[in-house]
Design goal:
The complex is a heterodimer of chains A (479) and B (68). The longest helix of chain A has 38 residues, at 316-353. Chain A contains 23 helices and no strands. In chain A, helix 5 (75-101) runs parallel beside helix 11. Chain A is an all-alpha fold and 479 residues long. By secondary structure, chain B is mainly alpha-helical. The chains are: A mainly alpha (479), B mainly alpha (68). The A-B interface holds A 71, 74, 77-78, 80-82, 84-85, 88-89, 92-94, 96-97, 208-214, 217, 221-222, 224-226, 233, 236-237, 240-241, 244, 263-264, 267-268, 270-272, 274-275, 277-278, 281, 284, 410-412 and B 1-5, 7, 11, 14, 17-18, 21-22, 25-26, 29-32, 34, 36-39, 41-42, 45-46, 48-50, 52-53, 56-57, 59-60, 63, 65-66.
C-alpha cells in the first residue's frame, strides 16, 4: 500500500460521506431528489454547471488533446465562450417555463411546449441513449486515473466497480443534492490541482511559458497552429459553434437549469462561468509541458500525459492528490448523469406506460433504476473496446439535434409544429447515426468541394438536414 | 421576443465576444510572435474569454428583468 492509494481512498470515502450528508433534513420526494426542490442559489448552480465542464474528459482529455493534437485543443476553451454567452438568453425562459409547469426533465419541456407526448418519448429515448456512453466514459476515466495514480496497485476494473458502487450509494440516497455537495470538494480539488501543476510544470522544466512554447515550436514546427488541412480554422470554427450550441442540450445540463431558485441565478452564472473556464488553460499547460518530457504516448494514451508527467515529477503524496481530484471529476458528472437519466426513464418512459402512477411511485422507479443503469454502464466499461468512443461522439451529436426545436420553442408559442420538430429530430438523428457508424467524412462525401467546406465538422450536415426537414414539415403540417 | 422578454438593443452586445473571437481564428493562427509567452491563437481566445464576463456583466447591470 502506498501513500497515493491511501489518499485516493480517503477522498473516495469523504466524497461518499458528503454525498450522503447532502440529504440531511430533507424529505426526499421526487422534486427534491431530481431537482433539489428547485431551490439552488448561485453557488450550488455554479457548482453543478462547473461539474458539467470539468469532467474526466476535461481533466484527462484536455491535457491529452494539448499533448497529442496541439493547437486544435483550444476549441475546448473557445466553445465555452459560445455556450455561456448563449446561456444568458437561453436558460431563463426555459427555467421560467419549467417552474410554471413544474417540469422534471428535458423531455417534459418538449411534451408541454409542443403539446406532444410522442415528441417527449422520442426526446427521452435520445437522452438515455446519449447519457449512457457519457457515463461509461466517466467510469472508464476513473479506472485509468485510479490505476495510474496508485502506481498500478489497484487494477482499473476494481476501481470501476468501486466508483460504480459509490455512485449508487449516494445517488440513491441524495439525488442531485449529493452531486452538488460532492461538487464543492471536487471544484476545490480541481482548482488547486490544475493551477498548481499548470504553473509548476512549465516553470520547473522550461523556466517559463515563453520558453516552453518556443521549445515545442522548435521540436515540432506547426504544433501550435491549426493545420492547413483537416483540423484547420474551418474545422475549428464549425466545431466551436456546434459544440457550443449543443452544450446545454445534454439532459443533465438542461435538467440542472431547473434546480435554480430564480432566473437571476442563471444570468449571474452566465456572467461568471467564462472566468472559471480559464482553469482549462492550466490543464493545457500541463499537456504542453508533457509533450517534450514524456514523449511517445500515442493515440488514446495521450490522455495519460497529465498523470505520467506528474509521476515523473512529484512524489506519491502529490500524485495521490491529483488522482483524488481526477476521481472526483468522474463522480460528480457521473452522479448527475445518473440522476437525470433515471428521472427520464421513470418520468418519460415508465409513467406513460403505467397510467395513473403517482409521484411517489415515479420516485421509487427512478431510484430503483439507478443500480440498473450503473450496472449497465459498468458492464459496458469492462467490456471495453474502442466501441465507446464513436458512441460518445455520437452522443454529443445526438443531443445537439434537439437544439433547433428548443430554439424555436422560446416564443410564447413555438415557431415550429410538433410534427416538424419530431421529423427534424428523427431525420437529424438518423443522419448522425449513419455518419458515425459508416465513418463517413466530408472529403469522401464531397471530394469536389473547396478545402474550407471539406474541413467543416461533419455534425453540421446532420443539423442542416434537421433544420430543413423541420421547416418543410412544419410548413405542411401547419396548414 | 424571446420567451416573452423583449430583446433590447444592449442585449446585442452579447454577439461581440463570440464573433470577435471566431473572426480572429484564421488571422491569429500563426506560431509567432508569442504573446505574454503564449501562442497567438491561445492568447487571443483567452483575451476574449476575459472580455466575455465584462460584456455580459454590463448587460446584466442594464437588464431590468433582473430587478424585483
Amino acid at each position: 500500500v502506498n501513500a497515493a492509494l491511501v489518499i485516493i481512498a480517503g477522498f473516495f470515502v469523504v466524497a461518499i460521506a458528503l454525498g450522503l450528508a447532502a440529504r440531511r433534513g430533507r424529505q426526499m420526494n421526487l422534486e427534491q431528489w431530481s431537482l433539489g426542490g428547485r431551490g439552488f442559489g448561485t453557488i450550488l448552480v455554479f457548482l453543478l454547471m462547473a461539474g458539467e465542464i470539468y469532467t474526466t474528459f476535461t481533466f484527462l482529455g484536455g491535457s491529452g488533446w494539448a499533448y497529442g493534437q496541439g493547437a486544435p485543443a483550444f476549441y475546448i476553451l473557445a466553445y465555452m465562450l459560445i455556450a455561456y454567452t448563449m446561456s444568458y438568453f437561453l436558460l431563463p425562459p426555459i427555467w421560467r417555463y419549467a417552474k410554471e409547469q413544474r417540469l422534471l426533465s428535458q423531455a417534459d419541456y418538449f411534451i408541454r411546449k409542443y403539446e406532444s407526448p410522442s415528441l417527449g418519448v422520442l426526446v427521452a429515448v435520445v437522452s438515455v441513449v446519449a447519457c449512457v456512453p457519457y457515463l461509461v466514459l466517466q467510469l472508464k476515466g476513473l479506472g485509468i486515473i485510479v490505476s495510474e495514480a496508485s502506481y498500478g496497485s489497484v487494477a482499473p476494473n476494481a476501481a470501476v466497480w468501486a466508483g460504480g458502487f459509490a455512485l449508487i450509494v449516494f445517488v440513491v440516497a441524495s439525488g442531485v443534492r449529493g452531486s452538488a455537495w460532492t461538487a464543492v470538494l471536487k471544484d476545490l480539488m480541481i482548482l488547486v490541482a490544475a493551477v498548481f501543476t499548470g504553473v509548476y510544470l512549465p516553470l520547473h522544466y522550461y523556466g517559463g511559458y515563453g520558453a516552453m512554447f518556443a521549445a515545442i515550436e522548435r521540436a515540432k514546427p506547426g504544433f501550435l497552429v491549426l493545420p492547413q488541412k483537416g483540423m484547420s480554422a474551418s474545422w475549428f470554427i464549425s466545431t466551436v459553434l456546434l459544440t457550443g450550441f449543443g452544450f446545454y442540450m445534454w439532459p443533465h445540463t438542461f435538467g440542472s437549469v431547473y434546480t435554480a431558485r430564480d432566473e437571476r441565478v442563471l444570468r449571474k452564472n452566465a456572467v461568471i462561468m467564462p472566468l472559471y473556464a480559464l482553469v482549462l488553460v492550466f490543464v493545457f499547460f500541463v499537456g504542453f509541458a508533457a509533450v517534450l518530457q514524456v514523449p511517445g504516448l500515442r493515440g488514446s494514451d495521450a490522455d495519460l500525459s497529465l498523470l505520467r508527467i506528474s509521476k515523473v515529477t512529484f512524489g506519491p503524496g502529490t500524485v495521490g492528490l491529483l488522482g483524488a481530484a481526477g476521481v472526483l471529476t468522474a463522480l460528480v458528472p457521473g452522479s448527475m448523469l445518473l440522476v437525470m437519466s433515471t428521472t427520464i426513464i421513470a418520468q418519460n418512459i415508465y409513467r406513460p406506460l403505467a397510467r395513473g402512477a403517482d409521484d411517489r411511485r415515479i420516485a421509487i422507479v427512478a431510484r430503483s433504476a439507478v443500480p440498473l443503469v450503473t450496472l449497465l454502464a459498468i458492464w459496458l466499461t469492462l467490456r471495453g473496446g474502442s466501441a465507446i468512443v464513436p458512441l460518445l461522439l455520437m452522443g454529443y451529436n445526438l443531443v445537439t439535434q434537439l437544439m433547433p426545436a428548443v430554439l424555436l420553442s422560446l416564443w410564447e408559442r413555438p415557431r415550429a409544429s410538433a410534427a416538424g420538430a419530431f421529423a427534424g429530430i428523427v431525420a437529424g438523428e438518423l443522419v448522425v447515426a449513419y455518419l458515425t457508424l459508416s465513418g463517413a467524412t466530408l472529403p469522401a462525401l464531397v471530394p469536389w468541394a473547396p478545402q474550407v467546406i471539406k474541413d467543416l465538422n461533419i455534425g453540421i450536415v446532420a443539423l442542416v438536414v434537421n433544420v430543413l426537414v423541420l421547416g418543410v414539415v412544419s410548413a405542411i403540417s401547419r396548414r | 421576443m424571446i420567451g416573452a422578454v423583449k430583446l433590447r438593443l444592449y442585449h446585442w452586445l452579447a454577439v461581440i465576444p463570440p464573433l470577435g473571437m471566431l473572426v480572429g481564428v484564421p488571422l491569429l493562427n500563426r506560431p509567432r510572435p508569442l504573446i505574454l509567452g503564449l501562442p497567438p491563437l491561445m492568447a487571443w481566445i483567452i483575451l476574449w474569454i476575459l472580455v466575455t464576463p465584462v460584456v455580459l456583466g454590463v448587460i446584466f447591470a442594464l437588464d431590468r428583468t433582473n430587478e424585483s
